[in-house]
């Protein structure tokens, strides 16, 4: 491996050093050919052609530069591809000021990476620079770390008053392991009413420090998939009449639904004129406020002439069976 590095260095130095010099514009770099790796405590290894030196910073201090890679895809051209044989992606190797020196991570700690930096966000922050607030952060108060939950949304059939909702209970720890749950307004499996309910867990350590920031909503939304129910649908009716055309009346059905009833309409209204030997088929269309429809209530109205009934079966024609709806 040593041998290979040296070869690599002597080969690469011709092509790469000049580029590296350009990129870093570091006039003070020596050609020490030590192939330095991570003597800077870096979490990556980047074999170099020369040791990274201290360099004059704009603020006047001498600041240690560290090995960095400018990947080929970004830099364009550069060192020969065979460099990847060392486990190093193709690119130009340069010495530059640590990327973390400019404190790019607003709220986290900054780790040097081979090509730049990575921000490690603390609890409650997210994003590349840890600059975004975590929408539902595990809360922390006085060293108590709470693992909280995101909002939960469930759906129930309209008319259901509540829904049992299960969730992983929030938990909390501190370094000493002395956190206790002080209060909880709901537990997993409780009935949650329709609407939005705020769940709050409060933890505290033995000195009474409280972390009450674990709050989340349980949203119970409703959906209507049940069509309206029709009551008192008139039955099929046959009337014996004297007049060939007679107005017929009936009591319209009623209907109910959790969303309320929007319309009850029929193809014939009570009082419609019906003729003997021309039965009508009445169909009710009931629509609820969710737009669901029930057309199951239908019935026929048939008129037969009393004269015909009497002729066909004279014994049947009595005052009781002869229903004279037109008042005759
Ligand atoms: C100059 O900047 C470097 C890098 O940001 C920093 O480490 C150093 O402390 C600064 N020196 C002074 C005197 O501000
Ligand atoms: C390397 O990682 C450790 C922990 O993962 C961290 O403490 C250290 O600061 C890192 N080093 C650099 C140079 O980023
Ligand atoms: C939830 O609804 C059921 C009826 O579906 C009822 O018996 C129960 O009392 C309700 N629970 C709460 C907490 O309101
Ligand atoms: C009327 O008669 C038809 C056909 O026999 C039947 O399908 C329907 O259910 C009856 N309607 C009522 C309201 O009884
Ligand atoms: C039924 O017929 C009578 C007599 O022809 C008429 O006066 C009445 O308006 C009709 N009723 C309906 C609802 O059409
Ligand atoms: C009701 O009327 C429909 C259509 O006119 C017909 O098909 C059906 O047989 C009738 N049912 C009865 C019980 O009269
Ligand atoms: C209508 O009647 C049929 C048969 O009885 C039933 O399966 C269906 O659910 C009913 N529809 C409604 C909207 O009640």
TrEMBL record:
GO molecular function: calcium ion binding
Superkingdom of this protein's organism: Eukaryota
Cystines in this chain: 100-110, 121-130
SMART domains: EGF, EGF_CA
Start and end residues of each HYR domain: 133-222, 223-305
Any Pfam family hit: EGF
Segments passing through the bilayer: 5-23
Keyword Acyltransferase applies: no
Keywords: Disulfide bond, EGF-like domain, Membrane, Repeat, Transmembrane, Transmembrane helix
Domain EGF-like: 96-131
Name listed for the protein in its UniProt record: Hyalin
Organism: Strongylocentrotus purpuratus
């Amino acid at each position: 491996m040593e041998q290979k590095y040296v070869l690599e260095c002597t080969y690469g130095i011709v092509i790469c050093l000049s580029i590296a010099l350009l990129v870093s514009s570091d006039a003070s770099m020596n050609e020490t050919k030590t192939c330095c790796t991570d003597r800077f405590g870096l979490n990556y290894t980047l074999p170099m052609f020369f040791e990274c030196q201290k360099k004059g910073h704009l603020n006047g201090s001498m600041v240690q530069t560290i090995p960095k890679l400018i990947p080929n895809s970004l830099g364009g051209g550069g060192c020969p591809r065979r460099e990847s044989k060392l486990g190093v992606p193709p690119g130009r190797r340069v010495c530059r000021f640590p990327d973390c020196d400019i404190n790019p991570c607003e709220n986290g700690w900054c780790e040097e990476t081979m090509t730049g930096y990575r921000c490690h966000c603390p609890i409650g922050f997210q994003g590349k620079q840890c600059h975004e607030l975590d929408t539902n952060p595990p809360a922390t108060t006085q060293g108590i770390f709470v693992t909280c939950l995101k909002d939960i949304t469930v759906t129930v059939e309209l008319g259901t008053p509540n829904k049992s909702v299960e969730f992983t209970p929030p938990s909390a720890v501190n370094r000493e392991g002395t956190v206790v749950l002080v209060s909880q307004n709901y537990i997993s499996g409780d009935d949650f009413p329709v609407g939005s309910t705020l769940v709050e867990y409060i933890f505290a350590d033995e000195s009474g420090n409280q972390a009450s920031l674990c709050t989340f909503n349980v949203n119970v939304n409703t959906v209507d998939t049940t069509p309206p129910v029709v009551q008192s649908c008139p039955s099929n009716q046959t009337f014996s009449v004297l007049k060939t055309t007679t107005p017929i009346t009936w009591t319209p059905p009623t209907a109910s639904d959790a969303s309320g009833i929007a319309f009850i309409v029929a193809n014939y209204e009570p009082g419609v004129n019906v003729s003997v030997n021309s039965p009508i088929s009445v169909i009710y269309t009931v629509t609820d406020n969710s737009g669901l429809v029930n057309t199951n209530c239908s019935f026929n109205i048939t008129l037969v002439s009393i004269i015909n009934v009497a002729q066909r079966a004279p014994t049947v024609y009595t005052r009781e069976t002869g229903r004279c709806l037109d008042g005759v």
